[in-house]
Amino acid sequence: MRLLIVGDPQDLTSVYLGYRAGLRGLDVQVLDESRFGIDWAFEIDEADVNASALIVDGERIGFGELLGAYVRFTPAPGVPATLEGDPGLAEVYARERRSALHLLLSRLAAPVANQPGFGQANGSKPLQMAQLQGAGFEVPRWIASNEPDRVEAFNSCFPEGTIVKSCSGTRSEVRLFDEDLTRKLAAGSPPVIVQQRIVGTDVRLHVVGERGFATSIEAGPGVDYRFDATRRRYAAIRPPDAVLQAAVAFAREQGLLIAGLDFRVSPNDRWWCLECNPAPTFLPYEMETGQAIADALLELMIAARN
Amino acid sequence: MTLKALIAWPDDKLTGAVAERLSQRGERWRWLVPANLGSTSVSIDAQDLYIDGEHASGVLWRARPEADFSVEFAEADRVFVDSEVRSFWLAALNLPGLATTIRPDAALFFSRSGWMLWRDALGRQGVSLSPLHYGSPQSAGAWLPYGTSRLRKPPPPAVRPQLGAAVARSMEAVEVLFARGLRCGSELLSPAAQANVERAVRVLEPGGLAFGEMLVDTSGSILAVDALPQVDDLAMIARLSSPLADLISAPSDRR
User: Fold this and answer.
1) Which residues of chain A are in CATH 3.30.1490.20 domains?
2) How does pLDDT run across A205-218, given as a tens digit for each residue?
3) What is the CATH number of domain A141-196?
4) ipTM score of the complex?
5) By three-state DSSP, how is residue B195 classified?
């Protein structure tokens, strides 16, 4: 049985998962997106499903021989030299190749962590917050707007103030609301999310199947711990059962074998859910706390195939 | 009376016809050009959409998600602004208080390979699909690129593996537009094929697609679905304008 590592072979989390799989004696097959169609390809014939196979360096690998797939794509894929001619077309070809990989992964009978189309509401924070709220999580109140008067009125509702973040999944630093924001909005800006500020501790909860691995993050005085390297310390903690059950159910409903849910836990122990990452980089949390997240994922795939 | 937003390029004749229909009914509407969405004053909360401070209850969405939404911004900011606008409107189109022609799944907005998602949804519900061959097919009647819903001449065999090409047996297909009870093009199909189209519509409508176009092969099986069809035929536009105006004027059934 082979584990596929799909996408970017330089991705550290992928490299680590492949290493952990090797320690268990599993065969690992890397499918490098940049070498798709050159070193490896695939065949899927809907008129003859038994003919479906990967072709790697000339060897045919039936889909039944696969343990599972772990997927980490690079944000900006390139194309082989043969498709590079026209820069405009190269971009189209790159998208076609990425879509073809999505198609391939969607047709595998083995577990895929994660299917690229699943959990994509993470790329639209307002949509995902609505989903999280619908799933029973406590989500801080929010609006998405570029209207200065409306965001000022919203901000005035909260004694602890509000925070500001982007609507998309683009990595950007969360900041406190201030007058500078209303000035920028008045000058012309796309909508931003303004959200009730919750004072408390950051917690990342990784869900792998039915299992949960919660990590509290002690950081400096900044609003966004991801951008604050000072005094950052990770500690494994036990989440409340209700939160874990809701997180497991949410990941399952989204079709995610592994998910990273971010919480802010207030001093009165209310777990406020901020977002769910469908492609979580669990490596720093595992390294700092010793929680065996990679092994849990491998065990989930092995159990599914047995 | 609440506002209806028409989000379409200025030359979209279909949107023009819907606007005319709304005016005849005394409905208030506003046409927003996708390129200017980045600088349009908008807000959403968990329920509703506001445009320039005014509550909007319906949206006709005619912009491809990969469109440029940021022409009024500096070149260096456009990628970011496009991404923010795309994310905002994806959430807006899924608001429970909004009547719209499409409630896109996030994967549809971000993956740009829409027909695959709709096709899979149809297949799961037992709708007859025209078989495709993916990957490195040696024989190919027609190519169905992932980013479009139109059949094309197949790429050279040497290039197919690098594109993971999806190919169909034949270039022959019938286009069927659907919106509410209206079907344009299905009269060319056999009764069995029409029944398959109806089965597909019954999957697509509750799945978030109230208006679109299906590509149907000569045996009546579905090849692909286009969630944002280009419509240029004036007779078809005249037939579609009323059901589309109905769609965005109806009270949302999800509030």
Assistant:
1) 141-196
2) 999 999 999 999 98
3) 3.30.1490.20
4) 0.93
5) helix
